[in-house]
Each structure stands twice: as C-alpha cells, then as structure tokens.
Amino acid sequence: MRADLIQIGVVGRPHGVRGLVHVHSHAADASALEAYRVLVDDKGREWSLRWRGADGVAELRDAQGTPLADRTAAQALVNTRLFVPRDALPEPEEEEFYHADLIGMEARESDCSLGQVVMVHDYGGGASLELTGGVLVPFTRACVPEIDLKGRVVTIVRPVEVSGEEGRGVGAAKAAGPAA
C-alpha cells in the first residue's frame, strides 16, 4: 500500500441486485467521496463513486468507467477499503489532524516513552488515542498538549484514571491524587 494514501471509506454490503453497494464514508461530508476523481482500493484498483441514495448507497465504476455488473460483483467488494492520495485532501485546519497522521507517532510523557499511537477512536463523545498496550487517552488539549507532526511525537499528560500501571513513568502522578 502506498504511504501517500489516506483511507476515506469502506465498501459495505450490496444493495439490491444491480451492483450497488453501501459505502461507509470517513469524510466529514460524505458527498466529498463523489468529488474525488479516483478512489484506490486495497489492491491498487481505481474506482469512481456516484451516490445513488441518501442512505449511503453508491455505484462504483472501475477505471474504464464500467459499473459493477450485479450483486455478486458487489458482494466481492464487501470490506474493501477506499483511499485517496493525500495531496487530494485539503490541509487540515489548525487544531485538526488526519487520523493517519497521528497513527504511528511516538507517545511521550515527560521523558518516558509510552509506545505509539495505534488507533484513533471516536464514538461520539470525543476522540481518544489508543496507545501501544491498549491504553486510551482522551484526545483533548489537557491530555495531549503538544503534537509535533515533523518529529512524529505526541506529548501525553494522562489523567489519574488512565495512568496505567506503576513503573511505567507515571507512578508519581498516580500516587499524588487529589488533595483531601
């Protein structure tokens, strides 16, 4: 997979018998997927997309402009990830980041490495960063006060309830606790 590609969506279940599919968009505005001239899948195949319904139903066409022939062809694409070249995306606003930029960054608390960011989760109540070992850190300015994209390092200040185990560089913060 090319390093300059950013995942923008994933193909879901077929819709009907004429080759339409449900597409789950990762874009803030799902209509943006139609504006990209070329979407690239996991296998390097190129696709274009046209929305065919308000509920995420789309028609995919291959590089030659041929739509999927039938339900069987649509079923074969279920769970296929769709990507766009990074340079086709707008630059994020200040204080905004693409998940792909954060994943793989080293997470540091003081002078202690906590591992890497392995996933960015957002279940509707605010984003969180999952670090190596399964530690989740709220993606807020208080918990992630600094992001150095060029240096590939995020600074972490974990609240007591997600500090983790003793001996991982955060024992003093955990032991201190709130004043009584």
From TrEMBL:
Instruction: Tell me which domain of life the UniProt entry assigns to the organism this sequence originates from.
Output: Bacteria
**Which GO annotations describe the biological process of this protein?**
ribosomal small subunit biogenesis; rRNA processing
Q: Where in the cell is it found?
A: Cytoplasm
Q: Name one Pfam family in it.
A: RimM
Q: Which Gene3D superfamilies match?
A: PRC-barrel domain, RimM
Recorded GO MF terms:
ribosome binding
Domain RimM N-terminal, first and last residues per copy: 7-87
Where the record annotates domain Ribosome maturation factor RimM PRC barrel, the positions are: 100-161
Q: Which GO terms describe its cellular component?
A: cytoplasm; ribosome
List keywords of the entry alphabetically: Chaperone, Cytoplasm, Ribosome biogenesis, rRNA processing
Q: Which family does it belong to?
A: Belongs to the RimM family.
Domain characteristics, as noted in the entry: The PRC barrel domain binds ribosomal protein uS19.
Under the subunit heading, UniProt states: Binds ribosomal protein uS19.
Query: What this chain does, per the record?
Result: An accessory protein needed during the final step in the assembly of 30S ribosomal subunit, possibly for assembly of the head region. Essential for efficient processing of 16S rRNA. May be needed both before and after RbfA during the maturation of 16S rRNA. It has affinity for free ribosomal 30S subunits but not for 70S ribosomes.
Entry protein name: Ribosome maturation factor RimM
Q: What is the lineage of its organism?
A: Bacteria, Pseudomonadati, Pseudomonadota, Alphaproteobacteria, Acetobacterales
